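$ run holo --ligand "uracil" --emit tokens
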Amino acid sequence: MRINKYLSSCGVASRRKCEELITAGKVRVNGKVVTELATDIKDDDSVEVSGKYVAPTQRSIYIMLNKPKGCVCTVSDDKGRKTVLDFVKLPDRIYPVGRLDYDTEGLLLLTNDGTLANKLAHPSNMVKKVYSVRVEGEPTDAEIGRLRSGVTFGGVKYAPAQVKRVSCDNNETKLEITVTEGKNHEIKNMIESLGRRVLFLKRVAIEGLRLGGLSRGEWRYLTPREVDMLKSL
Ligand code: URA
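-- output --
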């Protein structure tokens, strides 16, 4: 099996992230550092990541966390910041699917299923992510129209988004924005392209999966029906 696929089947990370680990020289096969992505792993090979032996995992785990602000979506942080795994203590190696910013909260999936993680994270699959956004001031209809047609910010193009006005008071507007791309700082950059600032950002749904009443920092396993729904996307 191709080395990146093998590592993600061990629950190390998504295939793309595993490629980064390989090229960074963190992976050894039979004691030797391997940086070649085209390497194949045979049944009797022993594989280490950052000095720890890994093996294909048995059970697939699918978790939804209500990520609070003030933590990063990585497995470990070299700046010593809190990570999302500080909220989900399990013996199994799981990792977050995609990212929410340090100061963004809401629905985050964690899994050891590299195939599903790849599928959900890949922009070509157009997975809908729904955000509740509080914006400074009151965006005009023309500004909302620009978000709906697609904006450019910092040389990056953002695809058309679905935008609903929810409420407006105290010189703040609450919007619900649905996007499918998953680009870095997507919502903040889209709003900044209007010359406005995001005051609060929370992901409330991924396709049919809703955060519901889960409190900040709490997590739960997905139901088999929810997992099937995500796999069928
Ligand atoms: N868009 C952002 O700007 N930040 C996030 O965390 C998620 C989407």
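-- notes --
Residues 15-23 form the longest helix (9 residues).
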